[in-house]
Amino acid sequence: MAGAPSVASWDDARQLRFLGASIAGNQPDRAQLRPKSDGVEAEMADETWADTLRAIDQGLGEALKALYESPNASDLRPELGNRLSEIRSRCETLFHRLVWEPTGRLTSGLPLSREQYHLLAAQGCTWADNKMVGLSPYTDFEVAEFFDYEDEERSCRIDPALPLPPGQIKLKFGVSPEKLRFNALRPEQRRFFEEHLPEVAARFAREAPTPPSDRGAE
Length: 218
Fold this sequence. Notes:
This protein is mainly α. The chain is built from eight helices and four strands. It has a two-stranded antiparallel ribbon. The protein has a two-stranded antiparallel sheet with strand order 3-4. A hairpin with a 4-residue loop joins β3 and β4. α3 (about 50-70) runs antiparallel to α4 and α4 (about 75-110) packs across α5 (about 115-120). The longest helix is centred in the middle third of the chain and has 32 residues, at about 75-110. The chain is elongated.
């Protein structure tokens, strides 16, 4: 349809270079890519990113410690070789998970997991989001930005304590609107809350108007 937006776009040339570098000369075979899984536990690898990065850091630390504490570094070549090979393997696994597999599944036309979708979005690939297909004037990130608050005294997240979907857990790390000044919001923030969440907009603290001066009547 003429004029219809594409369901995928990349923000700029930098993101296109990211896509090209991740699969250049090594277009993944569809059979090599893990099938899409349902559920957070199933769609993630056996290790989380934090687990993998922590293991890489620990492995490097142990290798360096052994190197510095040995009176003869040549005696450590087999041990260091094994440790560095293990670290390299973990790095390759992490690259595969964060870069190669998401872009490979995208370009191969395979379904994406939630994690893969957001990894691509973080690199600038917009894939059929609410704003692009016309369901909302905002992306998820733009909506999240509306809940950032900053004035002369504090910087925090606005927490209106809205009801959560079933199965989600509430984490308290923001500040309620009643403790924040409505006039400190950016103009686009005020419009967002007034148009889309008027009940939240009404909860912000309003500054009392300055009483008129009587000096002019003297």
